[in-house]
Amino acid sequence: MRATQLDTAATLRDGLNERALVTDRRREQMLLFGLCTPAVLLILIIIFVPIGWLSWLSLFDDAGRLGWDNYARLVEQPSYIKTFKTTFQVSLVVTIVDVLLGYPLAYMLSQMPRRAAGICMIFVILPFWTSVLVRTYAWLVILQRTGLVNEWLTGLGLVAEPVQLVHSFLGVVIGMSHVLLPFLVLPLYASMRAIDRDLLRAAMNLGASPTAAFWRVFFPLSLPGLAAGVVLIFVLCLGFFVTPTLMGGGRVIMWAMRMESTVSLYANWGAASALGVVLLVVTMGCLWIFSRLFGAENLVAKGLR
Fold this sequence. Notes:
Shape: flat
Order of helices and strands: HHHHHHHHHHHHH
Strand content: under 5%
Radius of gyration: 27 Å
Largest sheet: none
Oligomer: single chain
Distance between the termini: 59 Å
């Protein structure tokens, strides 16, 4: 009888303790929510108010009439379609070039001792200490018809006359690839450093060659970091302005440049807002596609840690 009473008392005590824990957990969650509310409201205001204002302006034409004329113009006029295609072409080519350059670099850094890799990473991060405008003008000096590259090419006899390296599609790709390369190396290096080297040793102990171990073990494990870098570069390319404006010389027109000219030359805020809304929708669509292909958890948890 006494044992039954003790068991009943213990059960009641455990139930009360569990209920108290649930209550404390809810109170803690409410407290954390209350602390985060001002920051969340500020972020929502900063993000959604400008987007809402931009979307509202895009619905008004030059005469102030409400309608879809600005969006219809984007489809009807060939110049907008050409600019849209150029933006995607540049973004795709720059992303591919950075992958071809950045993956071997990140792999080399990941195989080095941590102290040496940390020193080398300084040179990867060093461009962030210099303005994009300064770096772009440096490329203009290097790649111009009387620049270092053309002098070397003509001096070695590889070309008979200077090559058009600036104010062209090639110049835009070179400048943007240099500016955006660290955005691929950083997440890719972090992902490669997290790979357990014992997996490679186990693969080679089981008879795999170093090449097979790399492609079948190391490369698949580095894909989250590669995917994160590709997303960063491609999305940044879609809205890039400074480098294509200077390196393109008006011959390579991207979407952001068309937005700027629409406002500064024609003072047409409705058409520029429509361009901005379309660019935002396209960017979100690209992010959704990447998340479906690679997984949003992989992009955030593995690629950007």
